[in-house]
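Researcher: Re-running this chain for the archive, since the previous output was lost when a drive failed. Same request as before.
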Amino acid sequence: MLNDCNYSKIRLLHDLSRIVWYIDNHAKKDAESTGHVLCGKVCEELKADIEKNMEKLRAAVEGLSKEGKFD
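Model: Regenerated structure tokens:
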């Protein structure tokens, strides 16, 4: 059983990946189809920020796993 902190990391990665998927598959297309250029840019910036934070979470999980501390 994962401890609460490690569970939270995994849960955040999962939820953030769903947001990135939504941006890619819906939000950007919606902005483009309506001609809202600024909305499209906001989506791209938001996606980049989320992916940067997801990488930090992945690195934390990987580091703990290599140290045998991911429980």
